[in-house]
């Protein structure tokens, strides 16, 4: 059974700055850790705001809580040649105890070589046992093109340190192209079926056949990595609050775990 994580962005109503434009957290994550600990997960992929955007006491409660931080989800930029912010994020990753950090490079094609070089420096700043996982996000990163992502990650470091993830909403052609270009660097999946036109998300039960086909396709490519439930139904609705979102996550995780347990 692969590792399954909850992305805490899933239970954060201000994930996109719709409550406060600074994207500061509206949820105190520590208040929900006991509930999260009852879910069939191995840990959390923590949204950066839930650690960097809180006081020391809250950070200590999260890091000392019952659910381990496995991945640190950062939005640090790679367009600025000054790496002070990236160094501070590397220190935060080390403090969190995460074994990986999710990131995105920028969207400037002319900066492709610089992104690779800056990522290489950042890898040196991170603890030696931490991998950097490129989200390669469509629309905000030139790494959405798998061949570009491959060049950036090849410049940055070996597959043990510079990795990538895929999304379950990606079509078959993109998934195949990503594995063709990145191969063993693909180590993680974001379970995300968000409709970016309406910003709604179905229950996994409603897309179970589609998700099952995606799991099978990834396995055909030899994928054995980890999975994060990134979004759930209820976003931008009256149910966009932690209690309802965690109920939705519990139902979705039942579906995801059942599919992943099926050989």
Index terms:
263 residues; alpha/beta; eight-stranded parallel beta barrel; 9 helices; 37% helix
Secondary structure blueprint with pairings:
Elements: E1 4-7, H1 33-36, E2 43-47, H2 49-52, H3 56-63, E3 69-73, H4 84-96, E4 100-103, H5 112-125, E5 131-134, H6 146-156, E6 162-167, H7 172-182, E7 186-191, H8 208-220, E8 226-229, H9 242-261
Parallel strand pairs: 1-2, 1-8, 2-3, 3-4, 4-5, 5-6, 6-7, 7-8
Helix pairs in contact: 5-6, 6-7, 8-9
Structure description:
The chain has 263 residues and is α/β, with parallel strands linked by helices. It is built from 9 helices and 8 strands. It has helices at 33-36, 49-52, 56-63, 84-96, 112-125, 146-156, 172-182, 208-220, 242-261; strands at 4-7, 43-47, 69-73, 100-103, 131-134, 162-167, 186-191, 226-229. An 8-stranded parallel barrel has the order 1-2-3-4-5-6-7-8. The chain is globular, with a radius of gyration of 17 Å. The model has no long low-confidence stretch (mean pLDDT 97).
